[in-house]
Design brief:
The complex is a heterodimer. Chain A is of the alpha+beta class. Chain A has two domains: 2-71, Roll (Ubiquitin-like (UB roll)), CATH 3.10.20; 84-154, [2Fe-2S]-binding domain (DNA polymerase, domain 1, Orthogonal Bundle), CATH 1.10.150. Chain A has six helices and five strands; from the N terminus they run E-E-H-E-E-E-H-H-H-H-H. A five-stranded mixed sheet of chain A has the order 2-1-5-3-4. In chain A, helix 3 packs across helix 6 (138-152). The radius of gyration of chain A is 15 Å and the shape is globular. Chain B has three domains: 15-22 and 474-616, Aldehyde oxidase/xanthine dehydrogenase, molybdopterin binding domain (Aldehyde Oxidoreductase, domain 4, 2-Layer Sandwich), CATH 3.30.365; 31-131 and 202-278, Aldehyde Oxidoreductase, domain 3 (Alpha-Beta Complex), CATH 3.90.1170; 294-469 and 619-768, Aldehyde oxidase/xanthine dehydrogenase, molybdopterin binding domain (Aldehyde Oxidoreductase, domain 4, 2-Layer Sandwich), CATH 3.30.365. In chain B, strand 14 (308-318), helix 9 and strand 15 (346-354) form a beta-alpha-beta unit. The N and C termini of chain B lie far apart (64 Å). Chain B: This is Oxidoreductase molybdopterin-binding subunit. Chain B: Its cofactor is Mo-molybdopterin cytosine dinucleotide.
Chain lengths: 155, 769
């Protein structure tokens, strides 16, 4: 079956098997910036924004969200023009292996859109579904707080 | 020496690529015509495959190969990616006719898509002769227990007793030591099966290059060992294999194993097509690797003044169905713990490593020391209590100091005799003092501050680890100078997310006085970079970093030699390198590295300025860490909550504070998970009941306490620019420190990890009887 999405601002049409989850459809079509593997929605590595809300793409049937607007990590900034959150993660030592990083940043991005002045608890809650085995979260939380400062300065 | 580049928070060189989702991981490239590999696993804990019929599966459209023990090489090898000669037994084939745990591999299908491969697995018919199984080392060692490895593998101590290894080392006279003691304490503690849980699972893709050689792109910590072991299994020369390590999504030891590489390479070799195998999260739990569970007994004798007279440690290690890392992990349980208390002249370490019909433990951050400290550091507290000393005081009396040695260093290495070592850098007393101050140890300890049903307590523990494996681990590097004064560094080391590539850039930057951005680091590709043992044993900065340091010094010598020629001077002893220039302090002449490269490429004395160097260590300088934790125990629910965690760490000179902090905090949080929630649950038949993150709980952002890392710098003369390791040591503190803190809060000792609410409530109930 055919599905249409707007991904990172561009229109796409994919011919998919109706049983496929969004994560696989995205990766098979070159959006390998979306990581994954647990297929239970528990690790959060595959997080994308669907109509602005962070969702685990491994638990969403691709067919079910036909017409949706999808944002991957490349949709908020790329290696030539990184988003302040991406810059902050780099600067604050919040990237170790980096496998969880895109998903975590997208969860933080969605939080900051809704609430530009989150508390530490708000931040922890927002990235609670993005498991990280390398950093121990402390530097990620510091990075998100630093990004808030960068965004306020308009950097 | 004035530091220019090291000691600074240079940004991790690959961090922006990772944060922007560049295609850097193994599975991020998609080769056309790829065969997807899926595995069939044994549903039985111990069985012989009597008959296996793959004909229906083979008939399915899109299936190209079905692999079983019948059509794959029956080459006994070890999956442990260790140095050679290998200390782990040769007890594994690509596929075994005798399957030894629920999750052991029975067959694999290579098909045009994952869906077809999965479908084909259902069509394989297997007839098993189910055998009795054993799940604990005690059962497995009993007379008449089923023998797991009837083939009597090379490297196994006594296969008839399922005994993979037996270790016994002694120093002094242990019985005399206990007789001389005023108090003797014996304590037994059990640790559990646990999973490394890197967020990227195991992934391998393989393909033929244009000349028919096999290229393996794999998420591995040990590319050169992969090449050697795959060559062994496939019966082809190493020259026919190239192993590429892309970015790795975490390893922590689990990727120090050859699990998917040989299967992918075999499929590619037989079909000529690219092959891909990626483990699911469930496969990661049931069929990759775990931590060795151990039952450890520590007996300590001490005089009234607190000085230890004797320490005995016995470790009973469960190595599951295969003996990978069995001997060496158990060796480290003694060798990385007992030298810490070298004031005890009489020491004994004994270990038994035993096969059982459970999943396979392998290397895991901490590597046996984690298990050893879990018991040792609680026993030390028990001795202190008996003597009326506080936990810090007793450690100050007994810990090893700079200039000192321990007989254990020489007696026990990794799976063989060790080497004589003297401590050349150490700041334990300072670690103890700063850590105690930060947590408020003396203000809180013994106070049992209560708030309703919740009681607070504090606890601590002390640790050492090592840096690389002495006289075994080797690393090497090559580097060359470019026209813009930049330097290409090709080294065999394996950055698995730790930031080693960045540390390497800083070391080169420091030696040559150039911006680390001008250091282009290219790590471990077995065709291109020189050899390195890989990322394990806390050896990244110490071994690989030293190899790079040695090579940079050689490049520096060549640069000075060329400068001498360019300046027309007799000797170069007054030359310095500064910000990309060579400057003669005597004549004031200066030349930039860029001009020098142009000159040597195109104008005069034409040659490539290029160096190669290696490093092998004679010692394994230990980093030290003192951990302090404040916990809250709810006596109604049994829930233990860490409130604040302090780690004071001596890892020598700190090359990159932010990366070092990341290693410390990451290890602490992994340790907290191991101490409180992470454990395998098994059914009666040995099946893993919780193979997912829903039921196997690793910490999330909301589970962490306030964490304070304190770095205390020392200078390690045997390390690169004074550095030692930091990657493993900080996983060792959570179990003993939290255990000691629980005791401080509620006066009970729980005999095994994790400290679950059930165990806490049970212990409280028994105490109140």
């Amino acid at each position: 079956m055919k599905v249409h999405y707007k991904i990172n601002g561009k229109d796409y049409e994919f011919d998919i098997h109706p049983g496929k989850v969004l994560l696989d459809v995205l990766r098979e079509n070159g959006f390998t910036e979306v990581k994954g593997n647990c297929y239970m929605g528990t690790c959060g590595a595959c997080t994308v924004l669907i109509n602005g809300t962070p969702k685990t793409s491994c638990t969403i049937l691709a067919a079910k969200i036909n017409g949706a607007e999808i944002t991957t990590i490349k949709g908020i900034g790329d290696i030539l023009n990184p988003h302040p959150l991406q810059k902050a993660f780099v600067e604050k030592g919040a990237v170790q292996c980096g496998y969880c990083t895109p998903g975590t940043i997208l969860s933080a991005y969605a939080l900051l859109k809704q609430n530009p002045n989150p508390t530490d608890e708000d931040i922890k809650k927002a990235i609670d579904g993005n498991l990280c085995r390398c950093t121990g979260y402390v530097q990620q939380i510091e990075a998100i707080k630093y990004a808030i400062a960068l965004l306020k300065e308009g950097r | 020496m004035e530091r220019q580049i090291i000691g600074k928070n240079v940004e991790k060189i690959d961090a922006l690529a990772l944060a922007t989702g560049q295609p850097v991981f193994t599975d991020d490239i998609n080769l056309p015509n790829t065969l997807h590999i899926k595995f069939l696993y044994s549903p039985h804990a111990n069985a012989i495959i009597e008959d296996i019929d793959t004909s229906e599966a083979e008939k399915l459209r899109g299936v190209h190969m079905v692999l079983t023990y019948k059509n794959t090489p029956q080459v006994y090898h070890t999956t442990a990616g260790q140095g050679w000669p290998e200390p782990s037994p040769y007890d594994t084939c690509m596929f075994n006719q005798h399957v030894r745990f629920v999750g052991d591999r029975v067959a694999a299908v290579a098909a045009d898509s994952e869906e077809i491969a999965t479908e084909a697995l259902k069509l394989i018919k297997v007839k098993y002769n189910v055998l009795p199984a054993v799940f604990t080392p005690e059962e497995a060692m009993k007379e008449g227990a089923p023998i797991l490895h009837e083939e009597n593998p090379q490297g196994v101590y006594d296969y008839k007793k399922n005994l993979v290894a037996h270790i016994e080392v002694k120093a002094g006279d242990i019985e005399k030591g206990f007789k001389e003691a005023d108090v003797v304490v014996e304590h037994t503690f059990e640790t559990q099966f646990a999973q490394h849980s890197p967020i990227e699972t195991h992934a391998t893709i393989s393909y033929l290059d244009e000349n028919g050689r096999i290229v393996i792109r794999s998420s591995t910590q040990v590319p050169f060992h992969v090449r050697r072991i795959v060559a062994q299994v496939l019966g082809i020369p190493v020259s026919q294999i190239r192993v590429i390590k892309p970015r790795i999504g975490g390893g922590f030891g689990s990727k120090q194993e050859i699990i998917l590489e040989e299967v992918c390479a075999f499929v590619t070799m037989k079909t000529g097509r690219p092959a891909r195998a990626v483990y699911s999260r469930e496969e990661e739990f049931i069929s990759s690797r775990t931590r060795h569970p151990m039952k450890i007994t520590v007996k300590i004798g001490a005089k009234k003044d607190g000085k230890f007279t004797a320490i005995r440690m016995y470790a009973l290690s469960n190595t599951g169905a295969y003996g990978t890392h069995g001997l060496t992990v158990a060796s480290n349980t003694g060798s990385k713990t007992l030298p810490l208390y070298n004031k005890a002249p009489n020491v004994e370490f004994v270990a038994d490593v035993v096969y059982t019909n459970l999943p396979v433990p392998g290397a895991y951050r901490g590597y046996g020391a984690t298990q050893g400290y879990a018991c040792l550091e609680q026993t030390v507290d028990m001795v202190a209590e008996k003597l009326g000393l506080d936990p810090i005081a007793i450690r100050k009396i007994n810990h090893i100091r700079k200039g000192e040695t321990s007989p254990i260093f020489e007696a026990l290495g990794e799976g063989r005799e060790g080497v004589v070592q003297y401590i050349e850098s150490e700041a334990i007393d300072k670690l103890l003092e700063l850590g105690a101050k930060e947590i408020g140890f003396y203000e809180k300890w013994g106070k049992k501050i209560r708030n309703g049903s919740k009681v607070r307590g504090v606890g601590m523990s002390l640790h050492m680890q090592g840096s690389g494996i002495p006289k075994i681990d080797m690393g090497s590097a090559t580097m060359k100078l470019n026209e813009d004064g930049s330097v290409n560094v090709l080294y065999g080391g394996t950055d698995i997310g730790t930031g080693l590539d960045t540390v390497v850039a800083q070391i080169v930057g420091e030696v040559l006085s150039i911006d680390p951005k001008k250091v282009i680091v290219y790590p471990s590709d077995t065709d291109i970079t020189p050899f390195d043992k890989g990322a394990y044993a806390s050896s990244g900065t110490f071994i690989s970093g030293s190899a790079v340091y040695n090579t940079a010094l050689k490049l520096r010598d060549q640069i000075l030699e060329v400068a001498k020629e360019m300046f027309g001077e007799q000797d170069s002893k007054d030359y310095i390198l500064k910000d990309g220039f060579v400057i003669s302090e005597r004549s004031g002449k200066r030349v930039s590295l860029s001009e020098m490269a142009y000159d040597t490429f195109y104008v005069k004395k034409q040659k490539q300025i290029m160096a190669v160097g290696s490093f092998v260590s004679e010692s394994s300088p230990p980093p030290f860490a003192a951990h302090f934790v404040e916990v809250e125990v709810d006596e109604e629910t049994g829930i233990v909550t860490p409130i604040k965690y302090v780690a004071a760490v001596d890892c020598g000179i700190v090359i990159n504070p932010e990366l070092t902090k990341g290693q410390i905090i990451g290890a602490i949080v992994n340790g907290i998970g191991y101490a409180l929630t992470e454990e395998y649950k098994f059914g009666e038949n040995g099946k893993v009941l919780n193979p997912n993150f829903m039921e196997y709980r690793i910490p999330s952002s909301r589970d962490i306490p306030e964490i304070v890392p304190i770095l205390v710098e020392t200078y390690e003369p045997t390390g690169p620019l004074g550095a030692k390791s930091v990657s493993e040591i900080n996983i060792n503190g959570a179990i003993p420190a939290i255990g000691n803190a629980i005791y401080d809060a509620i006066g009970v000792r729980i005999g095994s990890s994790p400290y679950t609410p059930e165990k806490v409530l049970k212990a409280l109930k028994e105490k109140n009887k």
